[in-house]
Amino acid sequence: MNPEEDTEWNDILRKHGILGPQIKITQNDIYDSAVARAQEEEATRLERLDLDELAELEDSEDDQILEHYRQQRMQEMRAQVAKERFGTLEQISEPDYKSTVTDASTDVWVVVHLFREYIPECKLMNRFLSELAQEYRATKFVKIVSVECIHNYPDANLPTLLVYGKGDMQSQM
Fold this sequence. Notes:
By secondary structure, the chain is of the alpha/beta class.
């Protein structure tokens, strides 16, 4: 009879206090044991090194950490540059609308300004949108003459902003 076996008989004996509780080893226990063993081996290895070898090891580890940080930061910077590819208020025409606004809005947010050149509020809005475009370079800012975009669009509704995202218009102001 093996007291470590998982049998009904042993379960009954454990229930009545004849056998002690069964020790169950989990994956975490195995992992923890392996980590502890590796740490012990590393500690004994470090104890055998002299001061020069320890200093060299420390320099090597510092270099590895700095190189890892540098690579990580370069990836972050590349990702940021890839997102920030616009930065200007671009004027578009009716044929460009679908590709420049609707299709592009599946990947990025697009702000569309419907305007007329002779309306002072539209000129002011164009100036503000140009500044915003420089600040929020990951967002595409475009302007289009209102009657080119929506035929017979009333001038009383100008300036109008349309915000596109996820391939569809999300807001109209």
